Amino acid sequence: MRDTTAPAAPVVPTRGRLRPLGLDEVRITGGFWGERQDVNGTATLHHIGSRLESEGWLPNFDLAAAGTLPEGRRGREFSDSEVYKYLEALAWEIGRTDAAADTALEQRFREVVARVAAAQEPDGYVNTRFGRPGQGDRWSELEWGHELYCLGHLFQAAVARHRTRPDADDGLIEVARRAAELVCHEFGADGRDAICGHAEVEVGLAELGRVLGDQRFIDQAALFVERHGRGSLAEIEWGQEYFQDDVPVRDAEALRGHAVRANYLSSGATDVAVELADDGLLDALRGQWDRTVERRTYVTGGQGSHHQDEAFGDDWELPSDRAYSETCAGIGSIMFSWRLLLATGEPRHADLIERTLFNVVATSPAPDGRSFYYANTLHQRVPGVEADPEGTSKRASSSLRAPWFEVSCCPPNVARTFASLAAYVATADAEGVQLHQYAPSSVRTTLVDGRVVAFDVETGYPVDGGIRVTIVEDTEFALTLRVPSWASGAAVRLRTGDGLIEHAADPGTVEVRRAFRAGDVVELMLPLAPRLTTPDPRVDAVRGSVVVERGPEVLALESIDFGADIVDAVVAGDPVENDGSVRLPVRNRTSGEVTDAVLVPYHDWAQRGPSTMRVWIPTA
Amino acid sequence: MRDTTAPAAPVVPTRGRLRPLGLDEVRITGGFWGERQDVNGTATLHHIGSRLESEGWLPNFDLAAAGTLPEGRRGREFSDSEVYKYLEALAWEIGRTDAAADTALEQRFREVVARVAAAQEPDGYVNTRFGRPGQGDRWSELEWGHELYCLGHLFQAAVARHRTRPDADDGLIEVARRAAELVCHEFGADGRDAICGHAEVEVGLAELGRVLGDQRFIDQAALFVERHGRGSLAEIEWGQEYFQDDVPVRDAEALRGHAVRANYLSSGATDVAVELADDGLLDALRGQWDRTVERRTYVTGGQGSHHQDEAFGDDWELPSDRAYSETCAGIGSIMFSWRLLLATGEPRHADLIERTLFNVVATSPAPDGRSFYYANTLHQRVPGVEADPEGTSKRASSSLRAPWFEVSCCPPNVARTFASLAAYVATADAEGVQLHQYAPSSVRTTLVDGRVVAFDVETGYPVDGGIRVTIVEDTEFALTLRVPSWASGAAVRLRTGDGLIEHAADPGTVEVRRAFRAGDVVELMLPLAPRLTTPDPRVDAVRGSVVVERGPEVLALESIDFGADIVDAVVAGDPVENDGSVRLPVRNRTSGEVTDAVLVPYHDWAQRGPSTMRVWIPTA
Predict the structure, then answer these.
(1) Digit-coded pLDDT (tens) for A537-593
(2) Closest by alpha carbon to B316, among A558, A568, A293?
């Protein structure tokens, strides 16, 4: 059994193939993700904190503490959860930057915790939307009330804080513990035989159980997982699959229904399967992941084909033009994949995480970190409109990135993911360290037998395909590098005092096991030439089209680069890379003219004003 | 100016290129549509009447009369409208069958009218959902309240009754007149500057104004039309275009937003343009029709690409697998097209009516007339489930046809359309008669100069392509026959005592002008060989696929005929017709096996139990 309090990481299972490394063991030191972490820390967190105040979602807690609710309450029924995700993001950011107690970040964190704690009822209940005279009764609207969902996010925030600042006396972990005990009391085996309409409490309870060493919370998470699929939630227009209450988790074939709910539930179910050593449940989840990735996932890693219910479609139902691909569903997919990666060690889970990070999560925020995509279409037919910088947008509006949404789950979800991103870079096992994601970074950890592993990673990835690992301390260990599934022709090179060895590295993983000396260098060379990808013939929506990919990035054609409406674009040749930009010969169906159009990484689209855009481009 | 009270038809403009003929002038005597009219009259009307009782939507009027509302009220805010559409359907059916006063049909009609009349307030207001203590105030929820929408259907019912039984003393026309006067008082030029969130009152007021010769009602319809597009309705998640309140009617480029609302508004706007001789408005509507048919209409004639808001998509956004294609939107499109046909005489409007009748409206009801499709997908990936015959279904559920819906607009809309269908078959002008739709029928009318035109139509259409018109009375007149746009190679043949003349008839119309003698025969021969249709290259969703059409019918491939899941179907040859069935060589992508699969008319799909189905079939 591992010490699950120790690594400063979001997920610390007691068992599994790989051991996570915390923010104290892995630091991202620059590059593509380092820049985004900086913007997140300097701009996004401030932006979110400011909006939570001005929208009234944080002041709701003050009203609760003052006993004046429901009068003056603002926001949707789940607005508390955004405060908790914000707290979680602050906690990771404090941990990531090792912020001192007198910094504004730490003071802000403590202020928000104090406001939340003041709103907690004596019995542990905390929610600004239910339970008071003039409000709905506690737990009376399980389909749409989101009470347990909000608590799940509270638990994740408390876990983040406890793992990054185990000795902090801010009281957040106690707020969480008391709320979790109430949940166990109300919803335990002798309590309400019920679930929340939005999964999340499962993953929160499991991790809180791990961090507090309290099996009751893990058992409660298991109860919630098992209760899904029994139809206890009311039928709604979109069916009980919307809530994953149609089929028991262990009997399902694929993720279905609301894509965020589905991924959060699968994440919690994976935690439960690992903690309870329930291999049957774990196998079911692995099968669901496989089928979902094969048949219900966009080339960007995005999930969710329906606007109506923000839901997965049927197998092969992946329209570009109505792709919902909610940012939060992408984050949920990363949560699920990461848990399976820790449990199984299989690199395809890290492949999907990379695809989703670069093409969904990185697409959401604007470069200034102050506006976001909620949904991530793969085909924009009509130029979007500039969002009002002071306004609040509809979630899937056909706009440029917007500063805030009526349902604003995505901005704080991006913030907590970026702040904790180093935790997804590397893992350890008894033999050594596995590098899953490539970014300039430093890794310092101690293996279970006491060997100290220390190395630095330098890379210009994903612009450049070379990843250079320099050993910092003499240690014998196995360094395992992921070779992405698209990276045919990759090679690995070892430079030591003894000379240079180079060999091919097939997609999957490549291991270099050696008594390393400080200064030894392991280089992985990933071929990044732009490539044309054809769709599975069963995906009707993009038949007769191709997508250009380069390394982990999906590229997009914008009207501004084509010089005409992209409705007329037809591929007229192979993509060519020159001077750092990828160009594709594109014929205008109407004029017949062929343009060498620059393609942009999909995550960079719509940054030069309104445009039309497509990821899949017809070939005839 | 024409007598707009006289023809027993839903739409009787005072001017326009063509004059409608009423149910007393045109009778459908059998065949494809005659069978459907019979089922409608014998089964569907009873089914709807029974459900309106058991669901409480008709009893709501009794509660209103008893003064006990809101207690016990059932159904959605627009449930009154279904009662009015039912009344309209009964009125047409009574007219169509020339039912005597002592028939159950006529007695039922009078009973329902009496119950509605009893619920009318002294000032003319009638609605079971608003205006009483404990209900919302009158006109307080214009976005979603549907009060004016319901009244529009009341007006259409009263018009149907007055045109089919002008001397009836049931009082419905007075109920409508008093309600319309209230609407003019409340929403006139000096009243509320507002519109209803669901267009319909415009078309109802215009026709009521025609039938009563009351210009105030037409002017009020014009006011409502002009007020659209000024943003007086609140912003909702789907934008003000949902209500067509984003752009003034005369400035819009295409139909947009909710597809039923858009078509109903366009129909009312056409009525207004014709009555007020507003050529600018009429031209705008014609342009919108053209663009909508080119870019926003399915091959079935279906309209509406989005489930979320039951709305049109962008240009070329026509996914098969999430086609909404609501039955009521098809009926709305027929309403709009019919008004443009009367105004302009252009046969393409009749072409679309035919396409939509055969492939949307005829698809909705099951052969027994007791269950219906609300939405009409063009691609079913997962077998649907049998609907509970006693239950109430979600509107766009992935089921077989269902007996009733929570929002049950479609069944009574189909019923009123079928009952009045003869009114869409033929028109007259000063020179003669135009046949627009082909069905076994008899036509007896008098031209404006007193000439009596009488002929019978015999045809097995659409199974058979021969349409045989036999002149019944000696008259000199011009008989104009529509040659559908798909009917290249058609021919027309005239058989008289003088011999036989045959010549080619190009798509459009063909006119035979002659001093006809009784017994003369005009035959139109439409080529019905199955044909492969390729999509516009700008429609992404069906790129690389073809559809098989035969005459006016779109054909579909069902899994039961392919012998495997249609996800694996690839066209492997040309369709061939043999012994009355069309077969298409279809290769199984997985097994490689080629099957000569029977294709069924799309309107007949899902009649042999759950199946998967596609209309567009990949070619590679």
Answers:
(1) 999 999 999 999 999 999 999 999 999 999 999 999 999 999 889 999 999 999 999
(2) A568
Asked if residues B441 and B41 have their Cβ atoms less than 8 Å apart, the reply is no
Domains and CATH numbers, chain A: 19-424 (1.50.10), 426-525 (2.60.40.1180), 532-618 (no CATH)
Which of B306, B379, B540 has the CB atom closest to A320's CB atom?
Answer: B540
Contacts of B195 (CB under 8 A, 6+ apart): B142, B148, B224, B227, B228, B232, B233, B243, B245
φ/ψ of residue B121, rounded to 5: -75, 160
The distance of B598 to chain A (nearest Cα, Å) reads 22
State whether residue A263 is helix, strand or coil: helix
Taking the Cβ of residue A319 and every Cβ of chain B, the question of whether any pair is shorter than 8 Å is answered with yes
Residue A62 to residue A82: CA distance in whole angstroms: 15
What letter represents residue A290's amino acid? D
Chain A residues in contact with B394 by the CB 8 A cut-off are: 237-239
Segment B326-353, tens digit of pLDDT: 999 999 999 999 999 999 999 999 999 9
Q: B152: buried, middle or exposed (CB in 10 Å: 19+, 13-18, 0-12)? A: buried
Closest residue by Cα to residue B201 from B172, B227, B232, B231: B227
The DSSP string of A15-44 is SSSSEE--TTTEEE-SHHHHHHHHHIIIII
Residues of chain B with Cβ-Cβ distance to A537 below 8 Å are 589, 618
Q: Which of A253, A305, A310, A314 to mutate to test the interface with B (most CBs of B within 10 A)?
A: A314
**Torsion-angle region of B229 (φ positive above 0: left; ψ -120 to 50: alpha; else: beta):** left
Pair of tokens at residue B48: 């709807």
* A569 to A553, A614, B46: CA distances (angstroms): 21, 9, 54
Checking if the pLDDT of A357 tops 80, the result is: yes
* Interface residue A541 vs chain B (CB under 8 A): yes
Question: Which DSSP string corresponds to A222-258?
Answer: HHHHHHTTS--SPP-TT-GGGGT-SS-GGG-SS--SB
Q: Does B102 touch chain A (CB under 8 A)?
A: no
Dist. CA B288–CA A140, nearest whole Å: 49
The predicted model scores a pTM of 0.94
Confidence band, pLDDT 50/70/90 cuts, at residue B2: low
Contacts A536 to B, Cβ<8 Å: none
Euclidean distance between CA atoms A516 and A496, whole angstroms? 8
Q: Helix B279-295 to helix B327-344 angle, to the nearest 10 degrees?
A: 130
Residue B315 predicted with pLDDT over 90? yes
pLDDT (0 to 100) of residue A1: 58
CB atoms within 10 A of CB B121: 15
| Number of alpha carbons in the 13 Å side-chain half-sphere of residue B93 | 30
Interface test with B, best of A315, A322, A395, A406 (most B CBs within 10 A): A322
* Interchain contact B541–A (C-beta under 8 A): yes
Does the distance separating the beta carbons of B544 and A543 come in below 8 Å? yes
Does the N-terminal peptide bond of residue A70 adopt cis geometry, omega within 30 degrees of 0? yes
CA distance A396 to chain B (A): 9
* The pLDDT value given to residue A579: 86
d(CA A93, CA A107): 13
Q: How far apart are CA A138 and CA A132, in angstroms?
A: 8
Report in angstroms the alpha-carbon separations of B383 from A545, B289, B300, B379, B403. Answer: 28, 35, 21, 11, 18
ipTM of the complex: 0.90
Hey, are the CB atoms on A322 and B316 less than 8 Å from each other?
no
Handedness of CA B500, B503, B509, B514 (dihedral sign): negative
CB pairs under 8 A between A and B: 93
Residues 413 to 432 of A: which have CB under 8 A from any B CB?
Answer: none
Within an 8 Å CB–CB cutoff, is residue B76 touching chain A?
no
